[in-house]
Design a protein that fits this description.
The protein has 403 residues and is an alpha+beta fold. The chain has one domain: Orthogonal Bundle (Cytochrome p450), CATH 1.10.630. The chain has 16 helices and 11 strands. The longest helix has 32 residues.
């Protein structure tokens, strides 16, 4: 049976932790608009070609909100980050969404990131020193990949990093595909909501140098600011987005560079490649997670296929980033690739707000690791690396390293 006749289970499993599923290339070539079954059992349409994914993500007619009665459910236990009450509170489109992005985006400019670099580097140095002190082999994900972005986003939000294990659990429940029950998710989201409510109330009383204090200081909607609920939900969204994806990406990036040791050696020989190497790791990441779902409010045509109104599409940015028609030698990791118009951060009005932060963290981690641990290597064969399962973000369970 050909791919356009069958319904694939999605996410499509891959044989190896760092490799793409074999089906991606076939889908892009022969069936760029494919039928898939989601973890919930509902059906959706999968897009794998670069041009299609970019166009759908940038089209304001398609909504990220999956609350329409005929929208596909991602997970049988509730859709967490894709369809929670939280997702409905941040405006989805138009002038309201742009206004929200302008207010929050001031914290994520390249200028702000440049100012944060020294403190990020210091955190990275201390975390690496702690890992070395504990002795090899170490877990790079637990020792560095996870704590660094958490410390940074906690600082930006003015929340105590000591609560990071709770944030981690709450984030995971929001990103659930198949790991948690509905009761576990509901309880965690209620706790998270209570926590952030208390935190925002405390910031009203005693403002600090942080995003939430600044959003409160702007005033309410009548002053050009956000509602109390929008501020609270923005805090929750930034905490989830600000640590889970980058924490996983640090581990995957270092694993990709060490999987073929000549890549690591090339960076040691020429640290000026760090910036393009980070972009290439983002493009090359075959395990970035679920992708971005969109609900079509209007009938549309994609790659010659008419998609009726009410279709839920899943845009696989990771599959699109391997599209040979856009990237020469797309199946190869080229550390000097430039330009590199990958879609790891999405496209259009909803492209990732924190991409400057993620890029800065990834660059700083590489700079510090190359300087402090030039002999770094994987402590297990690359075939033994294991993927994180059951969540909407892709990652590795552990990244065992020696030096």
């Amino acid at each position: 049976m050909s791919l356009d006749e069958q319904v694939l289970n999605y996410p499509i499993p891959a044989d190896a932790a760092l490799e793409p599923p074999a089906e991606w290339a076939e889908l892009r070539g022969k069936c760029p608009v494919a039928h898939v079954q989601l973890p919930s059992g509902d059906q959706a349409t999968l897009l794998t070609r670069y041009d299609d994914v970019k166009r759908v993500l940038a089209d304001p007619r398609f909504t990220r909100q999956l609350n329409a009665p005929d929208a596909a459910r991602i997970s049988a236990e509730g859709d967490g980050v894709f369809n929670s009450d939280m997702a409905m509170i941040i405006p989805d489109g138009g002038e309201e969404h742009q206004h929200w992005r302008r207010l929050v985006g001031k914290w994520f400019t390249a200028k702000r990131m440049a100012a944060l670099r020294p403190s990020m580097a210091q955190i990275a140095e201390e975390l690496i020193d702690d890992m070395v002190e504990r002795g090899a082999p170490g877990d790079l994900k637990a020792s560095l990949g996870f704590p660094l972005p958490v410390y940074v986003i906690c600082d930006m939000l003015g929340v105590p990093a000591a609560d990071r294990d709770r944030f981690s659990y709450w984030s995971d429940t929001f990103l659930n595909l198949t790991r948690y029950s509905k009761d576990e998710i509901d309880a965690a989201q209620a706790e998270f909501f209570q926590y952030m409510s208390g935190h925002v109330a405390a910031k009203r009383e005693q403002p600090g140098e942080d995003i939430l204090s600044e959003l409160i200081a702007v005033g309410g909607p009548e002053d050009g600011g956000l509602t109390d609920m929008q501020i609270l939900v923005t805090g929750m969204a930034l905490l989830v987005a600000g640590h889970e994806t980058t924490a996983n990406m640090i581990g995957k990036m270092v694993s990709m560079l060490l999987a073929d040791r000549s890549r690591w050696e090339a960076l040691l020989a020429d640290p000026k490649l760090i910036r393009t190497a980070v972009e290439e790791a983002l493009r090359f990441d075959a395990n970035s997670g679920f992708g971005l779902p969109r609900y079509l409010r209007d009938e549309t045509e994609v790659s010659g296929t008419v998609l009726p109104r009410g279709t839920t599409v899943v845009c696989s940015m990771a599959a699109a980033n391997r599209d040979e028609s856009v990237f020469d030698g797309a199946a190869e990791m080229d550390l000097s690739r430039s330009p590199n118009p990958h879609l790891a951060f999405g496209s259009g009005a909803h492209s990732c707000l924190g991409q400057a932060l993620a890029r800065t963290e990834l660059q700083v981690v590489l700079e510090v690791l190359l300087r402090k641990l030039p002999t770094l290597d994987l402590a297990v064969p690359v075939e033994e690396l294991e993927r994180v399962e059951g969540l909407a973000v892709g990652g590795l369970r552990t990244v065992p390293v020696r030096w």
